[in-house]
Structures
1.
Amino acid sequence: AQKITQTQPGMFVQEKEAVTLDCTYDTSDQSYGLFWYKQPSSGEMIFLIYQGSYDEQNATEGRYSLNFQKARKSANLVISASQLGDSAMYFCAMREGGDAGGTSYGKLTFGQGTILTVHP
Amino acid sequence: NAGVTQTPKFQVLKTGQSMTLQCAQDMNHEYMSWYRQDPGMGLRLIHYSVGAGITDQGEVPNGYNVSRSTTEDFPLRLLSAAPSQTSVYFCASSYLGGRGYGYTFGSGTRLTVV
């Protein structure tokens, strides 16, 4: 069963505008972590933002924020003031189990990804 | 430079050949894992390890072996390469308490099996 779903294969945004990339997840764990990664055309995986399931505040990292809606099991990435360099593939990922460790700690489940294109 | 080092960066294999993809980290991370990335499917977990001497299977383990004799190294072995193993392979390491920043990916190995 797919645990991370990204329903937008591709998204387009105008430079300087905001964009939301969707991510829904499925888990029976109470403790889990949600990640967003950026993969530019060069291929490396760049960590953007993290949200723990017990975090009370939505995570923010500069122009990135995570709209975490626990009851709806969604973890959407919001990029404010898009830049041309934001054009890339974006992956949502989940780690089941809490931050304290355990056998699931090193395992991430990824969504299919969303290709974001920023137009000038 | 500290981080996760993968070698080689590119490799072409013939069907039936075997090879080892190398992964090394110098951050003393307990957890290491291997993923493959195929178009339209994101990254899928092949094998992972929670420490030296301990490994387990991920979502797509068939055709691959791993071992972890040291904390630093986590090689991935292709026993008899098949065209279906053409993919980009990523090694990652992580440590407790780092939350998002605790996960580090290598730069990837692009493997083609002909």
2.
Amino acid sequence: ILNVEQSPQSLHVQEGDSTNFTCSFPSSNFYALHWYRWETAKSPEALFVMTLNGDEKKKGRISATLNTKEGYSYLYIKGSQPEDSATYLCAFMSGGSYIPTFGRGTSLIVHP
Amino acid sequence: EAGVTQFPSHSVIEKGQTVTLRCDPISGHDNLYWYRRVMGKEIKFLLHFVKESKQDESGMPNNRFLAERTGGTYSTLKVQPAELEDSGVYFCASSDREETQYFGPGTRLLVL
């Protein structure tokens, strides 16, 4: 059983704050790490697919880093806005399997 | 291009009844996946179709769940008879390559 942990479970920040959260995963047999943004009643939206150790990816105010040797990825949001409020999910894929193992998500609420 | 669609968006049924969920993948996507998220827990894999064939059904919880994908287009997931613990959000995803999956908005199932 693969263990994918996300922390914190939930996060409340004020508009304009920058924030970050963590996804930890097994450090062996790594294939890919996905980040999704999920607003309730909508489809989880793919943010990043990260495959190489040391990867850094950016999409607007959101960026992510990857450390496959120690088994973690950080997601950063700069200058949070209320529309960033969502659950952020990470999903780990190991070599030889295309079935992702999801974390429980970090629920972010940005207060105006 | 239309995304993954799921029907119904919500379903409330009584224990012992039958419910059938439908997923229409993105046109041309051979890979179709079903997942379930029980409240507060992680999204868990149920099964994977490649065209009309079941590639991996290791996540199906028991024989009350039956998934089909006749003709390799849309898929149905039937729960018969439904139990209280079947409540959750059922997601469908599709992909043309196995790494990048596109999710539908989910069906929220409540079994009373």
